[in-house]
Amino acid sequence: MVKVRLWGSLRQAADGETEVEVKAKTFKELLDRLVETYPGLEPQIRRGVSLSLDGVIYREAWFTEIRPDAEVVLMPYMTGG
Amino acid sequence: MRYVAARTAKEAAGLLAAEPGVTRVLAGGTDVLVQLKSGLVEPELIVDIKKIPGIGDITAENGGFRIGAAVPNAALGEHAGVVALWPGVVEGANLIGSTQVQGRCTMAGNLCNGSPAGDAVPGLVAANAVARIAGPGGERDCPVADVPAGPGKTTLKTGEIVTSIFLPARPDRASDAYLRFIPRTEMDIAVASAAVSLELAADGTVKAARIVLGAVAPTVVVADEAGKLLVGTKLDDATLARMAKACEAVCKPIDDKRGTVAFRTRTAGTLARRAALIAYARAGGKK
Amino acid sequence: MSLDEYQKREFKQVGTRVRRPDGVDKVTGRAMYGADATAPGMLTGRILRSPHAHARIRSIDTKAAEALPGVKAVLTGADLPAQEDDFIRDVQDNCMARGKALYDGHAVAAVAAVDAATAKAALKLIKVDYEILPHVTEVDVAIKPGAPVVLAGRSLENVPAGMSENVTSHCEFGHGDPAKGFAKADRIVERSFRTAATHQGYIEPHACLASVSSDGKADLWCCTQGQYFVRTLCAAIMGMEASQLRVTASEIGGGFGGKTTVFIEPVALALSRKAGRPVKIVMTRDEVFRATGPTVHTSMDIKIGMAKDGRITGAEAHLRYSGGAFPCGTVDMGAQAAFAAYDLDNVRTYGWNVLTNRPKEAAYRAPGAPQAIYAVESVIDELCQDLGLDPIDVRLKNAAKKGTKSSYGPTFPDIGLVATLEAAKKHPHYSAPLAEGQGRGISCGFWFNFGGNSCVSLNINTDGTVGVTEGNPDIGGSRASISLMAAEELGIDYDRVRTIVADTSSLGYNDVTDGSRVTFAVGLATIKAARAAVRVMCERAAKIWGIDADAVEWKDGAAVPAGPNAGKFPPMSLAEIAAVSFETGGPIAGHHEVNVDGAGVSFGVHIVDVEVDKETGATKVLRYTVFQDAGKAVHPSYVEGQMQGGAVQGIGWALNEEYIYGADGRLQNPTFLDYRVPVASDLPMIDTVILEIPNPGHPYGVRGVGETGIVPPLAALSNAVSRSAGIRLSELPMSPPRVLKALGGS
Amino acid sequence: MKSIPVSTTINGDPYEFLCAPDETLLDALRNRLGLTGAKEGCGTGDCGACSVTLNGRLVCSCLVLGAEAEGAEIATIEGMADGDELHPLQRHFIDHAALQCGICTPGILVAAKSLLEKNPDPTDEEVRYWLAGNLCRCTGYDKIIRAVQAAAAEMRGA
């Protein structure tokens, strides 16, 4: 299981939690599990999310491996200037 | 649209008078071409006056100078005689636009553009400068102060063009100064401005003063009362404060993207005070 | 990517100040920008724009325009296809209104004609029947229930019930409990701030030349920060296949985020398809201001509690951003960045995006961050003043560092904020005496930096020179830095490498030049492409020597046997291997395609001294110093240039730049005369101090440098002006009328 | 609108072209003569990207009618280098990293050359005020001022 930190406004879609646990070994699995467990997260995940893994931000990268003890933070997908 | 480079002032006046549509006189073009670009005007006829003999000359006359209507302000600033006699007029003229604009823009154009914020105009009015006007009926002289009639408007009649501006002689112990306020250090239109022309008595007190404010009313404003307050003084702080208030009293500005009524009014007084001190020092006054 | 990319090394090329490859063309006037392209039979395209802030388009009559001799095509929104995807539809509807004009300047029709005069005349013949609707241009008005609705039905599921339909999204970030934090504070400051919309102000107006053939093949030349993204958008709008549309980026005359999307390109393509001839569109400056993508305007409430010793106990921000008439996510980035510089136990940011009748926002250098950080850094400065604390000491006491749980979630790896603050503190500027009436301000700044999709192809020419092909328009000297990295990796001179920017048909997809990503991400791809070429060269040397490829290594620009057991052969240089490449197996190349992650965040600290004229409210900037963590500075001059340019854009934002709307909802100042970007005489020299804290996610330790520099100036100036004038300012820009009013002078 | 024939001298070479009466010199240079080094950033004299000299005076070519070029001497960025030898200003702009995107560079170089002809030893402030009509959005002007001063020093033989 990996602990995933959500940002505040996703709380309502995740039973009021800002930290949830799902079983996943990769970024893609993580997203799939999140959508299965918390369907309310689907619209945001479809719009795009980034993933911070131990402080490094990944914008896509489905197959990024996630160790069970890794710090995983979901972030909005970012665009810049 | 037609473009004609007139060979004489008479030809220019005739062309302009004969054209029933919108016309523009082209000297430096720094306002006319902006109007064309923005689509603000679509003239039927543009008369370029730069080829008229003598119109690009500065000539000494009766202790003063006659400035041709096509003299670019950069050339004015390079003329040591004019700079020495009317430094405030020249500094106003030289504040218009960039170096590039200075290479083209003229005092006569600034006057005829009719903007209350034109940087050359307050100094000319403070100097009691006189415009020479050529028209279908011949030539006439008109105080510069009487040319502007409101934003974008002048008292010039159909077919009339300004051919030169005369800056009169002035006595010893006299000088002038011009200050404007802009948000940046360059490239802006004046939000408020003030020209002050002073003549001092032998004892260093002010003998005559003429204060002219820009960008605070539909045309430049001669602040007569404010000027009178300076007479007989050496510009002590109390006098200057009264003078600034008197300037504020004649301001009737508008609120727009460039400044508020309150800001323009307050700043006009501040600039008049500062310009008076500069003119006073230039005239040899010692406090 | 991972955090073990970085390896400490001695650089030979990287870090030197070489001449840029585009230099001679740019100083001689030869460089080709967007408006410089021509094509045989080219038509001139022009766009008709709405004079209304908000109006229903009842009908558009184009008959008279079409009948005008010389007019070859007329276009309206009805000519473009319906789009399923919200994002594409918004881009398309922004390029050409459909149903409603949503802001002053919104395109409603376009023509292509044989020359500009005919096109201009044709626009006048188009009759648009408008039904004028109530408009709203201010975020604080648009957010209120009952405000005119700009676009209905666009609120996301995360928007709390009961708000205006103009509120399209809501976000919340943070951890801990600010209320508990405030309870521990000795002093709490709560203030509201507003920032005006600003424009990137690139000097080159948007320009493009489109040529669509009857067989469906199309070419588009344009000034853009991302030719591939232009292709994606235009192909979707035009219903074309990506392979049929080749987009070539011209030299770009500034972008700063504003050229990351399309405005005129689909219009030119559609006109060209209709007319059967190439069509060129060049925007006027008026069009650039009214109808491209300025940044958001904002309204913000900040509350920060501080203990007497300077420790921040609690922090909260409410951010209301408006990116104009279409939804945007900029407030999310502002909300994440607001408190990123600090190690806080109790922090919360809330953000709302609100629609207004203004042009659709585009990115502008660190989008969303400067505004929020301005507000936060202003309140911190006020707390420092109230508690009698040194502003750098307070920031050091609270500074985020390795291991800090950031206000937006992730725990920071190695970051450079403490080092940057310490450099600022010990710099002579910080301790220089100030004269009476002068004020000194400081501020921290932050930006995430991006990686992203990057493709690089590197060819070893037979004469020993190297061609690098990459796909990101060079906006700040990236061709030089990419050449430097290729030269470094290959062990050859910089002068032997030439880097070019490819069109969309020549390389795989590249993300736009944004997020300060190019030197980092394309640089990484370049290094890996060079390594791939090195592997081939080592194999060739091995073949020539008759030894195992594993027994050859690359050293100082040459293949050498790897150790005494490999055999004794003299080094074989790149040029020597290249010279016989045809004989040893064929041309040699390396390439690398990757979606790069591992971008390193960047922090900056700015110090500024100002003097406010208390009689006019005018601010003079006296001295300015920028400190920024760049990671490895590949080309120090260009790093400095980014820092200086960002600082000056921020100075303009702080002092004079603003979008001014009239009561009629029309933009009042769409000119460089009244949209006042800083001019040379407004400024002092901008001193720079580069810190090089390596980014663990890049082989050379590179971070992005392009964006962070615009973040600190807003608060640094505001804090300096506040200290000089003896008042607290809370609105940008600090134009003289605003400052004089705050001083009670008018 | 009837076109006007214009005979002029550009960078020392004779040119003849036809232009519309309301056509700017900038448009004539760019669209009729292929001299695209002067750029249009604003069309209203506020950015300086179109700077050229007209009879020795620095002007914005967007504020000059093409017809006014009749009989005039015009100098543009294309005439600044001597063959393949760059003018010292051009060289120092490259060496001092005084350009980034480069769109303002031709106008700034033409303006700076005109300054140094008038004032070979300007102060930084004089350079800044002379160039105030040339907007640069990339550099913050710092490196531009330094490059102009370095070129001025070289040209003075200092």
Secondary-structure blueprint:
The complex is a heterotetramer of chains A (81), B (287), C (746) and D (158).
Chain B: E1 2-5, H1 9-18, E2 23-26, H2 32-38, E3 45-48, E4 58-61, E5 64-68, H3 73-77, H4 80-85, H5 87-94, H6 99-102, H7 107-112, H8 121-126, E6 130-135, E7 138-143, E8 148-150, E9 153-154, E10 161-167, E11 174-181, E12 192-200, E13 206-214, E14 221-222, H9 224-230, H10 237-250, H11 261-282
Parallel strand pairs in B: 1-3, 2-3
Antiparallel strand pairs in B: 4-5, 5-10, 6-7, 6-10, 8-9, 11-12, 12-13, 13-14
Helix pairs in contact in B: 9-10, 10-11
Chain C: H1 23-28, E1 43-49, E2 55-61, H2 63-67, E3 71-76, H3 86-95, E4 100-101, E5 107-113, H4 116-125, E6 127-132, H5 139-142, E7 167-175, H6 178-183, E8 187-195, E9 207-212, E10 218-222, H7 227-238, E11 245-249, H8 265-275, E12 279-282, H9 285-291, E13 297-306, E14 312-322, H10 330-337, E15 347-354, H11 369-387, H12 391-398, H13 417-426, H14 428-431, E16 438-447, E17 452-460, E18 466-470, H15 478-490, E19 497-501, H16 518-545, E20 552-555, E21 558-561, E22 572-573, H17 574-579, E23 588-596, E24 602-613, E25 618-629, H18 636-655, E26 686-691, H19 712-725, E27 731-732, H20 736-742
Parallel strand pairs in C: 1-12, 8-27, 10-11, 14-15, 18-19, 25-26
Antiparallel strand pairs in C: 1-5, 2-4, 2-6, 3-5, 7-15, 8-13, 9-10, 9-12, 13-14, 16-24, 17-18, 17-23, 20-21, 21-22, 24-25
Helix pairs in contact in C: 7-8, 10-11, 11-19, 12-13, 15-16, 18-19
Chain D: E1 4-10, E2 13-19, H1 25-32, E3 51-54, E4 57-60, E5 73-75, H2 88-95, H3 105-118, H4 124-130, H5 142-156
Helix pairs in contact in D: 2-5
Description:
Helix content of chain A is 21%, strand content 26%. With 81 residues, chain A is α+β, with helices and mostly antiparallel strands. Chain A has a single domain (2-76), classed as Beta-grasp domain (Ubiquitin-like (UB roll)). Chain A has a five-stranded mixed sheet with strand order 2-1-5-3-4. With 287 residues, chain B is of the alpha+beta class. Chain B folds into two domains: 55-167, Uridine Diphospho-n-acetylenolpyruvylglucosamine Reductase, domain 3 (2-Layer Sandwich); 174-282, Enolase-like, domain 1 (2-Layer Sandwich). In chain B, helix 9 (224-230) runs antiparallel to helix 10 (237-250) and helix 10 crosses helix 11. Among the domains of chain C are: 34-133 and 204-291, Aldehyde oxidase/xanthine dehydrogenase, a/b hammerhead (Aldehyde Oxidoreductase, domain 3, Alpha-Beta Complex), CATH 3.90.1170; 420-449 and 600-746, Aldehyde oxidase/xanthine dehydrogenase, molybdopterin binding domain (Aldehyde Oxidoreductase, domain 4); 451-596, Aldehyde Oxidoreductase, domain 4 (2-Layer Sandwich). In chain C, the strands form six sheets. In chain C, strands 3-5-1-12-9-10-11 form a seven-stranded mixed sheet, with helices on both faces. In chain C, strands 7-15-14-13-8-27 form a six-stranded mixed sheet. Chain C has a four-stranded mixed sheet with strand order 16-24-25-26, with helices on both faces. The longest helix of chain C has 28 residues, at 518-545. Chain D is of the alpha+beta class and 158 residues long. Chain D has two domains: 4-79, Beta-grasp domain (Ubiquitin-like (UB roll)); 88-156, [2Fe-2S]-binding domain (DNA polymerase, domain 1, Orthogonal Bundle). In chain D, 33% of the residues lie in helices and 16% in strands. Chain D has five helices and five strands. Chain D has helices spanning 25-32, 88-95, 105-118, 124-130, 142-156; strands spanning 4-10, 13-19, 51-54, 57-60, 73-75. In chain D, strands 2-1-5-3-4 form a five-stranded mixed sheet, with helices on both faces. In chain D, helix 2 (88-95) crosses helix 5 (142-156). The model of chain D has no long low-confidence stretch (mean pLDDT 97). Chains in contact: A-C, B-C, B-D, C-D. At the C-D interface, helix 1 and helix 18 of C face helix 2, helix 3, helix 4 and helix 5 of D.
